Amino acid sequence: MIISIASGKGGTGKTMVSASLASVWERPMTAVDLDVEEPNLHIFLKPEIISEEKVYLEVPQVDESRCNLCRKCSDLCQFKAINVMGSTLLTFPEMCHACGGCMAICPEEAISWERREIGTISQGKSGRIDFLMGSLRVGEAMSPPLMRVVKTKLAKDLDRSGGDAIIDAPPGVSCPAVSAVMDSDYILLVTEPTPFGFHDFKLAVEAFTPLKKSMATVINRSGMGDEGVRKFCKERNIPILAEIPFDRDIAGAYSRGKVVADLSWELKSLFSALAGSIYERNIGGQKCAR
Amino acid sequence: MTKVAVTSEGPTLTDMVDPRFGRAGGFVVVDPDTMEHAYVDNGSSQTMAHGAGIQAAQIIADSGAKVVLTGFVGPKAFEALKAVGIKVVQNLDNMSVKEAVEKYKSGNVDYAQQANK
């Protein structure tokens, strides 16, 4: 089972929840940082990094002596990464999404691949937790291609371990956020009960609903703000699986890079109960259905 | 004389210069000597999520214009225009297409060395 920890708004506590859930998870667990633009789950889980490899995107390279300027590639490319301008063929590798269309459509076989580095993928261990992280090269415009590579690696690892995964997703509701959650079985939205949190929470629900995945919520910093999120969840039938109190000790532990579930017996129970209800709603539920 | 393409909000010489290059409404392609002109729509670039500037540059290259008069050009579009030797005059917004061409004809303009957006 793959659980994505997502949110609309940034700073609601995705990484805190991801680290704590991973640490209390009873089955084999891979914790994955898919917030590749600014990965920071490692700050809390403090994994020992075992391997690190560079990830490349394959972008078109044109043999201009074979190009007859037919424009088929240029007309096909939705990102204008390859263009015929007059009698000049022009590529913009940073615009390329590596779909391979230009190479497939070229009747002259003038296009081959060259590699462009887009980031790194790191693997490690944090106690019994397997750790996987993508880090986008600074200046790189698109994160989904790197995320795709991390997800492929995760799928292989899960096949081998038979365990579960928690994905720390990037904030927002655009391509990176959707790309992070789309292959998961369960989406856990971390929000805060403030008008700002609520506003972005609604956007997240709207963005992820078409994916037709089970969704639930964790309210972080419970005790502040208003009732907007709770009312909305009730109306939309989105279960609130846990409420993490707005508490100075939690903020203090977080500020020192600690896993919040390790702070006290009460918090450990809170996250264990959260893990239990997620597990039950997925694997437990499936068993019941059979 | 070389034809110039002016980013425009509409098809005539009296329409205003569209300050945007990539997402301009269209281009009025003008012969500065005779002021004869034709309009090229840029709707296909406007609807693109990415690469509007590059697409617009391609349209300009196809139109045969060798100079672009506009408000501002982004870095990729600028690179594309430069690659095919099309010169760019920026900061010609807040005037009509005709006024932009007159200003160009007066010689009181600078060709951009780089993108200004």
Which features does this protein show?
heterodimer, A: 290 residues, alpha/beta, Rossmann fold, Alpha-Beta Plaits, 2 domains, nine-stranded mixed beta sheet, 10 helices, elongated, B: 117 residues, 30% helix, globular
Provide the fold topology.
The complex is a heterodimer of chains A (290) and B (117).
Chain A: E1 2-6, H1 14-24, E2 29-33, H2 41-45, E3 48-62, H3 72-76, E4 82-85, E5 88-91, H4 101-105, E6 111-126, E7 129-136, H5 144-161, E8 164-168, H6 175-181, E9 186-191, H7 195-208, E10 214-222, H8 228-236, E11 240-245, H9 248-255, H10 265-289
Helix pairs in contact in A: 1-10, 5-6
Chain B: E1 4-8, E2 26-30, E3 37-41, H1 43-46, H2 52-63, E4 67-69, H3 75-83, E5 87-89, H4 97-106
Parallel strand pairs in B: 1-4, 4-5
Antiparallel strand pairs in B: 1-2, 2-3
What does this structure look like?
- The complex is a heterodimer of chains A (290) and B (117).
- Chain A has 290 residues and is of the alpha/beta class.
- Chain A has two domains: 2-55 and 120-283, P-loop containing nucleotide triphosphate hydrolases (Rossmann fold); 56-117, Alpha-Beta Plaits, CATH 3.30.70.20.
- Chain A is 37% helix and 29% strand.
- Chain A has ten helices and eleven strands.
- Chain A has a nine-stranded mixed β-sheet, sandwiched between helices. In chain A, strands 4-5 form a two-stranded antiparallel ribbon.
- In chain A, helix 1 (14-24) packs across helix 10 and helix 5 (144-161) runs parallel beside helix 6 (175-181).
- Chain A is elongated and about 70 Å long.
- By secondary structure, chain B is an alpha/beta fold.
- In chain B, 30% of the residues lie in helices and 18% in strands.
- Chain B has helices at 43-46, 52-63, 75-83, 97-106; strands at 4-8, 26-30, 37-41, 67-69, 87-89.
- Chain B has a five-stranded mixed β-sheet, sandwiched between helices.
- In chain B, helix 2 packs parallel to helix 3.
- In chain B, 44% of the residues are buried.
- The mean pLDDT of chain B is 92.
- Chain A binds chain B through residues 74, 77-81, 83-86, 88, 90, 92, 95, and chain B through 48-52, 54-55, 57-58, 61-62, 76, 79-80, 83-84.
